[in-house]
Amino acid sequence: RKAGYNMQQLDFAIVGTGLRAAMLAQELVRVHAKKVGLFLDRLVEHQISREINLGLAVSTRPETLRMMTEIEGDIVPSLTRIAGRHVLSRVHPVIVGVAPPMAQGLAYMYHYLKGMEGEIERLPAGDIKGHRREAIRVRGVRLVHDRLVWPALFDWLHQQGAVLQERTGMNINMRKDGSARIGAGADLFSAHRVVLADEGALLEHGPTEALPEIFQPVSCCAIETDPVAGLNDHLVLGPEKGFWARRQKNGHMKMSAAVPLEEMAGQIRAFLSPSIRPRLNGRRTYRSVRVRDGAPVSGRLAQGGMIGIAGFGHWGAFAAPALARWLCGSSSENEKSFFSRHDPRKDRRPVADIDGAVGEAT
To answer: For the chain, what is the mean pLDDT?
Structure first.
């Protein structure tokens, strides 16, 4: 770099691949008046969807289910203000567990949410197709329509003076005090804190290889298909492999799972129906990391290092306001306790959850 090169100063550099990162940046700017850089590839708004954002946590931990219930509505004002009231709708996802541990976990989740007066029902074997050990339907869950969010959110962040940079090709050089020097294209930044806000960012930029007991690299795929006959449910989740399938208004299907593309047909048979053979319209393969113990991760990945956020499953975007408060030191006591307990450098056994929290990738 030339002498005297202008280095832009940031309070937070948010690095990510999906809506959790973008909404976290938005909250830090709007609510906490921070100078934020969002490092995320803008093509995300045009690519095949590989995430689905729901106001629902699939968990056996009471503290996680309570946290989701408490904060689930926090993101609604931001989303509707930026992208309009149609950005959210209510859906009734069916959650399917095939392996015995997952089936047991869903049975526990059913009883816990039922006790909290949640709109949840257990599906008897006769109501679902295939050989499934457990299936529950949760009614009235908020769903974010990502395609409506992206253009409006990028415009809003730009208008508010946030830095928007492509993540591809960026390099992060951490300093001993936890700040960082970041190069992205022809630009140079100094960030007080660096947040790797999802699994894709952790895979590409984090020291995940130094934490093999927590993070496991996985191959993933996302597909779009022609309409599928005989499928009554509009949204099905299979947490064991991060599987989800959503039927669009035109009947076409969007699906994603933490498996290689050649194994996707097996996931469709396991979680939807053995008789389904959808015709592919589009596909995408990518790499991610999964959290081995199935619980959220929130904290520094090393002493004085980057902050990592992972393992929130489909509810990560809904956690953005609480995560922003935690990063800015203004959490409630419940939030502070929750995020502290999920520090990756602490003993993880007390928070271990359903083994299957797989997030987004590069």
So the answer is: 90
Place of tokens 């809003």: 156
Q: First and final CA of the chain: distance in angstroms?
A: 29
CA distance 256 to 221: 6
Beta strands, E only, 130-214: 134-138, 141-144, 163-165, 171-174, 180-184, 187-196
d(CA 324, CA 191): 16
Q: Which two tokens stand for residue 77?
A: 């004002």
Verdict on whether the full-model pTM lies above 0.85: yes
On the question of pLDDT at 171 being above 90, the answer is yes
- Per residue in 198-254, pLDDT (tens digit) is 999 999 998 877 788 899 999 999 999 998 877 778 999 999 899 999 998 888 999
How do beta strands 235-238 and 94-97 pair? parallel
178 is written with which tokens?
Answer: 């936890």
